[in-house]
Amino acid sequence: MQLVMIGSGNVATVLGRRIRLAGHTVLQVVSRQPENAARLAGELGSAFTDKWQEIDKQADLYLVALSDTALSDFARRGPALDNRLVAHTAGAVSKDLLETITRRPAVLYPLQSLRKEIEFYPEIPLLIDAQTPADKELLTAFARTISGVVREADDETRIKLHLAAVLVNNFGNHLFRLAEDYCRQEKVDFRLLLPVIRETADRLTRFSPGEVQTGPAIRKDRATIEKHLSMLGKYLDTSELYELFTKQIEAL
Amino acid sequence: MQLVMIGSGNVATVLGRRIRLAGHTVLQVVSRQPENAARLAGELGSAFTDKWQEIDKQADLYLVALSDTALSDFARRGPALDNRLVAHTAGAVSKDLLETITRRPAVLYPLQSLRKEIEFYPEIPLLIDAQTPADKELLTAFARTISGVVREADDETRIKLHLAAVLVNNFGNHLFRLAEDYCRQEKVDFRLLLPVIRETADRLTRFSPGEVQTGPAIRKDRATIEKHLSMLGKYLDTSELYELFTKQIEAL
Hints:
Two copies of one chain form a homodimer. By secondary structure, chain A is α/β, with parallel strands linked by helices. Helices cover 45% and strands 15% of the residues of chain A.
């Protein structure tokens, strides 16, 4: 396939690399950040422009990998792409937003936390949506060339999975940040926790999280809980979360 | 080494397997749950008893892998082990608790969430403490035969790491449980989240969690946040955590 990539951030970069690796051609990178556009175009062997009006009109697929705000702006003021297949990559935005610039709006949403610093992702599930069965089929076939896990998902399903991903990834990562901060300030080695963090994730392939809850809260071990809370005195965010998690787990 | 294992639950089982695999002998399993004791003794090729007074007095090392409550009880009413090396496996309990039954109290704490259903753990960091340098050395040398990551850690360091492990494992697992529950009730596939969960954990080997925070809260994307909260209406625990996490992440 011949593509135009609109955007040059984390999602555009990680997807762009996989697209190129799968043998497709990224004709052009379009981004209002000229430096980022040039960097990504260099990496993908593409032309680039920072002007929406210079967008190549001959591609098979336009991937719009922009933040939600920039995506709205693109839908309002971007160039008419008429009968071209245009897919955005946002979890919480309806595909209909793109109706202002194309008769073939679509979505290709990567259910993964993508960062361009990370060269290799073992798995990036892709959720696909489009207006017609033919476009769904076309986009699914394309998606399968860059990912082993491809599913059709309408707007409602996609935003539900996006919400669930926020819980596990964004909030999980915040817990890791608080733990790292605590360890740094208390001068104990956060890296000793990496095996238990990895185990907590890995065992979900075989166990439901409800079956493997451990720790003082599920045991209703008030002595340990009180001890922990007293140790967390000056860590206000961590204390607050500790109390709420403990309350919820004790009530299970 | 010749050991006696006191306890027959998750910690005793997982450590017992590794100890046996490393070529040591578990002379005896001691547990007040006769069925569990028999099962573990069968697996380890050991004798077993459910009576503390029948404990073998000739071992090089006694591992006390009991819950905090049972451990207290053992320290109060267990047999005198005089000059034997006795190590408990608890994160939040001082080694001094064992002074009532031995002159050589010690700790061998696995910083991992251990479940006997799980046959293989890639890594179980062990935190070691003992009364004398000689016992620390002896226990460290033993620990190295069953784990690639062994550190000395006094009571204070150990309980800090235990607290941090509660944050990342117990609370992380609760987030996974809430996400799974939401997905089940909303009829979307929780397993699609496993790659992002794994990625969130794996990238900590190379990035600090503060560097890789993503999502609506860190972007202060109020539209998505309000949408998510309205979708979480009937999920009270999840809503409550969503609000608290979002407040904390937005304030970063």
